[in-house]
Amino acid sequence: MVYAIDVRHGGDASTGEVNAQLYLDGRQHAKSKVPAVFPVPGGTIQVAASVFGLKRCHFVTAEGSESLLTPDIHSAEGRRAHFDFAHPSTSHGIGVVSLVLLVVGLVLLALQLMESLSLVPPVAENVGVFSSPVTLPVWANIVVGFVTGAASTERALRLRYNRWLDGGAG
Fold it and tell me: Is it true that the peptide bond before 35 is cis, omega within 30 degrees of 0?
């Protein structure tokens, strides 16, 4: 028996719901809204999505041990896994760069958000006004947004997920 999971990240065209489909030997066996838990012989397959991709796609045995499912080589996650296998040093470097870019983007966002919130009159009166040490022009904020999105997408393709870095509870 060969099980496969298919998740369309854009969601259903009519409802917008993101669904996981479980295939058994090439035929659709079950479908569920994510997060999904599919019972299979010996345990369950658990699937959860984030804003940028899958944050969980594991087989969990009845005893509780977990193993990450191998992504299909034709999927974006599978191509990223193959690149990681074929070029581990380069892949590690890309992973480190994506993590650094993501952290820098989130720090810049936090500084700007703190400055904006401190300008609200009740906050300014009780806490004071915070002036961010970094002020970026609009074009730079747009670039930071795109770079941060790309870094999050790269982490999602490697099936790496951290709720603080990759989209909260999403």
Answer: yes
- Sheet strand arrangement including 66-68: 36-40, 43-50, 53-61, 66-68
Cβ pair 156, 53 in contact under 8 A = yes
- Tens-digit pLDDT profile for residues 30-54: 999 989 999 999 999 999 887 767 7
Q: What is the 3-state secondary structure (H, E, C) of 51-101?
A: CCEEEEEEEEECCCCEEECCCCCCCHHHHHHHHHHHCHHHHHHHHHHHHHH
- Secondary structure element (H or E) that encloses residue 41, with its range: none
Q: Is the pTM of this model over 0.70?
A: no
Domain ranges across the chain:
3-69, 82-157
pLDDT, tens only, 51-61: 767 778 889 99
Alpha-carbon gap, residue 70 to 82, rounded angstroms: 11
Residue 130 tokens, joined: 């915070």
